[in-house]
Specification:
The complex is a heterodimer of chains A (about 350) and B (about 300). In chain A, about 25% of the residues lie in helices and about 30% in strands. Chain A is α+β, with helices and mostly antiparallel strands. A six-stranded mixed beta sheet of chain A has the order 6-7-8-3-9-10, sandwiched between helices. A four-stranded antiparallel beta sheet of chain A has the order 2-1-4-5, with helices on one face. In chain A, helix 2 packs across helix 3 and helix 2 runs parallel beside helix 4. The radius of gyration of chain A is 24 Å and the shape is elongated. Chain B is an all-alpha fold. Chain B has a single domain, classed as Orthogonal Bundle (MetI-like fold), CATH 1.10.3720.10. The longest helix of chain B has about 40 residues. The chains are: A alpha+beta (about 350), B mainly alpha (about 300). Bound molecules: adenosine-5'-triphosphate and magnesium ion. Adenosine-5'-triphosphate binds next to strand 2 and helix 1 of chain A.
């Protein structure tokens, strides 16, 4: 079975930039893992190392129990969807999808069947004779998907395949990709820097920062129990509030230097109160609103309230919280258990 | 590279300003190309006496003489062979070199300015270099080719040997130009497209033929047009510098014959007719290339 195991892999470019720093990660067979992190944190590099387009400085990659990093890229049974599609501009959509199969000795008839199947799935049937330059962005992206799909690889790698699409198409493709992957049950790694994409699509989420893997878990685990302050700040929108412990009226675990609490967990009914502040700004989103408040010692907080809140700027902000919604972090930014 | 897909869609606007901008170029073309061409065309219908005192309108007599001349036919044949060989070799060798260098350059950029130096070689300079290299007195290649034989290689007497000198000189000059264009073409191929191909096709040679070469086709087509006209016309400079007193009999091209008949033989009418024929041939060739080959070229 196609279980993908990365063991302590690192990539150092030109002797200095540590793009990927001792990452260990296991993607179970048929699992869909999203790789999330800010720009430049090494997501693409990690993906390219799995594909074999980048060598490993150290570490090991195994696929289905066999060493993968010593296999040349063309012999790995891995298909990649590139961020900019990377379609062959001189070939039709059909040619693009058929290319890999032709080179792997699949017969003409079998190629036709497989490409047409994929085309049907991706609603490309009418477009098979077009060159990439005659396709729209979304159509190109689907051809790129099709090119990976027809190979029926052991592993799918997606490098921000939706980043060039408009919001509506992106939402639609998100669902399509996920359904497709569920049907085919192909082990997949999906790079993105869009947390909504990551949260909604992934079985498990790997959050990276500066080349390191900060946390690896299900979307809900990561939302509810962020392992580091970075993960806590990166996941969730609007972002988590970080307060100094002195503002909180309750005892906190040993070593806590920062306390995090999400805007949606600050409520009027909360058991414990924060010092009252006043409202500086209100972002109205219709179904809800984000209140920007200022506490006595200039501490800013965000509070998420229902859309019918009727607050105005200058009103007092008097909110409370429940203890189990607090996230405590130590001086190194690591989570401290309560 | 031009973008014909775009060019084809361009509508001519009606402002005079664009024409003003191209006027200097038009003037240069007019004075140095159109006017002499028309003059050659006119002269090709006249028979002029060697002193240029009188001339006589003779209709197509000059053309008929040329086509009936067995000498012209053999020069025609060797020019065709020469041009094909020069074009093929100078593009082929440049392609080979550029592919090798492209592999290196993808990792390091600092050589790139150095590579463009080679561009500035004029045909006459290439001819001079060839003349020295193959000179019986001081030429290392002359010595090397003749090593162990008693005068096997004699480019001053033997037309085949002379062709070798002319072809190698002409090719040598043109490789650098082709190299730069091909290298630029290779570097313009998106890296991710090649990477996608790397995942899709294990065979490096077939990857080159099915991905790299087609994406290079616009460059190669452009070079084909340029190189054929170079081989037909500009190699005159090489021939004339390698052989200031003329190549051995049987080693001349059509352009060289135009020059010899016109300026040395003082047959202005015949020489003009030859140059008109030459122009028509190259024009036709270029049109054929655009009609048939360009269709198969994919511009991105
Ligand atoms: N070929 C290279 N040579 C040197 N440094 C590189 C190279 N490729 C990437 N890097 C560096 O490695 C780091 C990680 O790059 P990478 O492309 O993996 O980031 P990313 O997480 O994919 O970012 P983005 O979200 O912007 O795509 C960056 O600091 C980048 O500058
Ligand atoms: Mg990236």
């Amino acid at each position: 079975m196609a279980r993908l195991e990365l063991t302590n892999i690192s990539k150092v470019f030109a002797g200095q930039t540590r793009a990927v720093d001792r990452v260990s990660l296991t993607v179970e067979d048929g699992e869909f893992v999203a790789l999330l992190g800010p720009s430049g944190c090494g997501k693409s590099t990690l993906l390219r190392m799995i594909a074999g387009l980048e060598t490993l400085t150290e570490g090991q990659v195994d696929l289905a129990g066999m060493r993968l990093d010593t296999v040349p890229p063309s012999k790995r049974d891995v298909a990649m969807v590139f961020q900019n599609y990377a379609l062959y501009p001189h070939m039709t959509a059909f040619g693009n999808m058929a290319y890999a199969l032709k080179n792997r000795g699949v017969t003409r008839d079998a190629i036709r069947v497989r490409v047409e199947q994929a085309a049907q799935l991706l609603q490309l049937t009418e477009l098979l004779d077009r060159k990439p330059s005659q396709l729209s962005g979304g159509q190109r992206q689907r051809v790129a998907m099709g090119r990976a799909l027809v190979r029926e690889p052991q592993v799918f790698l997606f490098d921000e395949p939706l980043s060039n699409l408009d919001a509506a198409l992106r939402g639609q493709m998100r669902v399509e990709i996920r359904q497709l992957q569920r049907t085919l049950r192909i082990t997949s790694v999906f790079v993105t820097h869009d947390q909504i994409e990551a949260m909604t699509m992934a079985d498990r989420l790997a959050v990276m920062n500066q080349g390191r893997l900060e946390q690896f878990g299900t979307p809900l685990e990561i939302y509810h129990r962020p392992a580091t302050q970075f993960v806590a700040s990166f996941i969730g929108s609007p972002p988590m509030n970080f307060l100094s412990p002195s503002l909180l009226p309750i005892p906190l675990p040993e070593g806590t230097v920062t306390v995090g609490i999400r805007p949606e967990h600050l409520t009027a009914e909360g058991a414990h109160r924060l010092p009252a502040g006043h409202c500086l700004l209100i972002e109205e989103l219709g179904s809800e609103a984000i209140v920007h408040g200022q506490l006595p010692d200039n501490q800013m907080i965000l509070v998420r309230v229902a859309g019918d809140h009727r607050r105005v700027i200058g009103d007092s902000v008097d909110v409370g919280f429940d203890v189990h919604h607090l996230h405590c972090f130590d001086a190194q930014g690591l989570r401290v258990e309560q | 590279m031009p973008q014909p897909a775009l060019m084809k869609r361009v509508q001519f606007s009606h402002s005079p300003i664009p024409y003003l901008f191209v006027l200097p170029q038009i003037l240069i073309i007019g004075v140095f190309f159109l006017w002499p061409s028309l003059e050659a065309f006119r002269l090709s219908f006249f028979l002029e006496d060697p002193w240029g005192l009188s001339n006589q309108f003779v209709w197509f007599e000059n053309y008929i003489t040329i086509f009936e001349d067995p000498d012209y036919q053999s020069v025609f044949g060797s020019t065709v062979v020469f041009s094909v060989v020069v074009t093929f070799l100078s593009i082929g060798i440049a392609l080979l070199l550029a592919v090798k260098v492209d592999g290196l350059l993808r990792f390091s950029m600092q050589y790139r300015p150095l590579l463009t130096w080679a561009y500035a070689v004029a045909p006459a300079v290439a001819g001079l270099v060839a003349r020295f290299l193959y000179s019986p007195q001081i030429g290392p290649l002359y010595d090397w080719l003749n090593a162990g034989t008693d005068g096997w290689f004699e480019p001053r007497l033997d037309p085949m040997d002379a062709w070798l000198v002319l072809i190698s000189g002409s090719v040598w000059k043109q490789i650098s130009v082709n190299f730069i264009f091909i290298l630029a073409g290779l570097q313009a191929i998106p890296r991710t497209v090649l990477e996608a191909a790397l995942l899709d096709n294990p065979n490096g040679g077939r990857r080159f033929l099915s991905i790299t070469l087609p994406l290079l086709a616009p460059t190669l087509f452009f070079l084909l047009v340029i190189n054929i006209s170079y081989a037909v016309f500009e190699t005159f400079g090489v021939i004339d510098t390698v052989y200031p007193f003329g190549p051995p009999a049987g080693a001349e091209t059509l352009v060289y014959k135009v020059y010899v008949d016109g300026f040395k033989g003082a047959d202005l009418g015949g020489s003009s007719a030859q140059s008109v024929i030459l122009m028509v041939i190259v024009l036709a060739l270029t049109m054929i290339q655009f009609k048939y080959i360009e269709k198969r070229v994919h511009y991105t």
